[in-house]
């Protein structure tokens, strides 16, 4: 079962995990990835604006989710991604994968994150020191995605 | 045909959407980009480094040599930075 | 900050995740692995008994946690492992890793689980069809651990 | 010296713990296993396939050729299956 949710509202990481784990069908393993608004000492930001292309985002994440479920034999997969204005330490994205054994859950969630980073239509603009800047794409994200090619 | 712009393309052009009617000989994404750039100085500028522009035709990511025949929506945007 | 907890009591996966994420220091990524009592159709079990060697388990998981934090540059790591009698779908183990960027969190949690499986002193006995059986060690778990050697 | 047994070793021996006083020439884990097996038929039986027995000296996993000099606790158990 695949669930894809795009929303402006904040979500509660733990509540989402518990909803995901309910009636888990005797699965042995769940991996939850939570992406947070990063704001580290020396690279602190005030806010993050996430722009997205709604129709394509829903379509791209659904296709990606189906691919992940099939490739890693997942029992259940949920992708939640926010858009709009976010503050430091708020959750941006949560990917949860359920499977019989642990490696499939790890790989499923990791695969979804790596492909999502480069192929799902979201763009980040950071406000730091009162100045707004679009976040640049990182070539390491291309490498991370490409390692799943086979 | 609806054209969409996202992120800094949208900001620099000061619009996120427009409707256009390209001539019949505009067959591919690349043709469309040439035609748009020729018709508008602002677009010419944001399309300056073509390799950095990603394109979706009817909500599907495509390469620049893809056909636009029958397309309802073509979207232009920078490399994605979600997650 | 490393936390290692061994307990007989059940824990709530989502509550643990939220406690772990509180005041996350502007970290960008968290990965939670939850191991559950597996009971799949055709391989259903009634209960699982987890025996452990308390002093060594605490020591081994603490050493493993320190190694993981150091190797992957984690900002925070929590390992919770239960012992005693468990029922299907209950959580057995939860490993949570917090880091600046996503791959360290994925690898940190994955590394801890792979090494924990073969090197932490816990033994599982399953009750299925009214019969008790000790779970055998799997050679694939040795391979999973060995891939982290460098 | 305290000896601990876990999982099916404990069950088959019907005890989880015993205190022993091995002679001075018992230097390694392997020596201790020989000595325990010689002194007790039940232990001889559970130690039958030596490669399957894991050993911890004072709560640290060790190989069978490790010294037991000064050890307070030696634990014997099957391969671990936690997580």
Description:
- The complex is a heterotetramer, with 2 copies of chain A (150 residues) and 2 copies of chain B (83 residues).
- Chain A is of the alpha+beta class.
- Chain A has one domain (2-17, 25-149): Alpha-Beta Complex (Aldehyde Oxidoreductase, domain 3), CATH 3.90.1170.
- Chain A is 36% helix and 33% strand.
- Chain A has 4 helices and 8 strands; from the N terminus they run βαββαβββαββα.
- Chain A has helices at residues 13-21, 54-72, 102-119, 139-146, and strands spanning 2-7, 29-36, 47-52, 76-82, 84-86, 91-99, 122-128, 131-134.
- In chain A, the strands form 2 sheets. In chain A, strands 1-4-6-2 form a 4-stranded mixed beta sheet, with helices on both faces.
- In chain A, strand 7 (122-128) and strand 8 form a beta hairpin.
- In chain A, helix 3 packs across helix 4.
- The mean pLDDT of chain A is 96.
- Chain B is globular and about 35 Å long.
- The termini of chain B are far apart.
- Chain B is α+β, with helices and mostly antiparallel strands.
- Chain B has a single domain (2-77), classed as Beta-grasp domain (Ubiquitin-like (UB roll), Roll), CATH 3.10.20.30.
- In chain B, strands 2-1-5-3-4 form a 5-stranded mixed beta sheet.
- At the C-D interface, strand 3, helix 2, helix 3 and strand 7 of C face helix 1 of D.
- Strand 2 of chain A pairs antiparallel with strand 2 of chain C.
Please give the structural blueprint.
The complex is a heterotetramer, with 2 copies of chain A (150 residues) and 2 copies of chain B (83 residues).
Chain A: E1 2-7, H1 13-21, E2 29-36, E3 47-52, H2 54-72, E4 76-82, E5 84-86, E6 91-99, H3 102-119, E7 122-128, E8 131-134, H4 139-146
Parallel strand pairs in A: 1-4
Antiparallel strand pairs in A: 2-6, 3-5, 3-7, 4-6, 7-8
Chain B: E1 2-5, H1 7-13, E2 17-19, H2 29-39, H3 41-46, E3 54-57, E4 60-62, E5 73-77
Parallel strand pairs in B: 1-5
Antiparallel strand pairs in B: 1-2, 3-4, 3-5
